[in-house]
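ARCHIVE CARD
CATEGORY: sequence design from structure
SOURCE FIELD: tokenized fold
FIELD CONTENT:
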């Protein structure tokens, strides 16, 4: 909290706050909950950047202490999701729906990875899903190769090393498709 409190003047002036990201902040629920409680006591706004892969009890424990969930949705097809991430998307989508039903502020972040999740079917199903949850805004984030060196330094294989970032034209086409389905769309996060 001492580190967080050093920037209170900036939060006040910008009407911003603290974003907990990672890795995955839900993997350290006790620590995250304690920080969120302290931020709430000090009137510091909070955001949690998550993929939502956690037991709902973990999310529910912090739910009332989070001002905004930045929620990553990658793929709607469970089999494909397992192939690329190693886990099912079922708890991710169920947690998203429950958060939306609870009235929490949610911003979907959809990282566009060429050849993995940028096909018309996935883009359409993603839009339909989030609209069915009452969410009307999505940020599309172009895949970037910044993680390659980090993986190498950790001695891990980066399974999509050969994939190139999407072109501006491809991003515009995805944006137009999402907008045609009824979403407000922004390219890039923020």
């Amino acid at each position: 909290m001492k580190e967080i409190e050093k920037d209170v003047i900036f939060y006040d002036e910008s009407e911003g706050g603290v974003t907990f990201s990672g890795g995955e902040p839900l993997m350290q629920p006790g620590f995250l909950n304690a920080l969120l409680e302290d931020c709430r006591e000090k009137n510091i706004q909070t955001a949690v950047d998550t993929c939502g892969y956690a037991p709902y009890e973990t999310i529910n424990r912090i739910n009332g202490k989070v001002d905004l969930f930045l929620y990553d949705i990658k793929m709607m097809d469970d089999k494909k999701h397992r192939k690329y991430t190693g886990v099912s998307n079922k708890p991710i989508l169920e947690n998203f729906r429950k958060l939306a039903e609870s009235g929490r502020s949610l911003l979907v972040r959809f990282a566009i990875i060429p050849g993995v999740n940028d096909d018309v079917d996935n883009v359409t199903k993603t839009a339909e899903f989030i609209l069915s949850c009452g969410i009307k805004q999505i940020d599309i984030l172009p895949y970037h190769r910044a993680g390659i060196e980090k993986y190498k330094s950790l001695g891990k294989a980066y399974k999509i090393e050969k994939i190139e970032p999407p072109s501006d034209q491809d991003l515009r086409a995805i944006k137009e498709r999402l907008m045609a389905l009824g979403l407000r769309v922004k390219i890039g996060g923020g």
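CARD ANNOTATION: The chain has a mean pLDDT of 92. Strands lie at 17-20, 45-50, 68-72, 106-112, 137-142, 184-187.
SHELF: design records, drawer C
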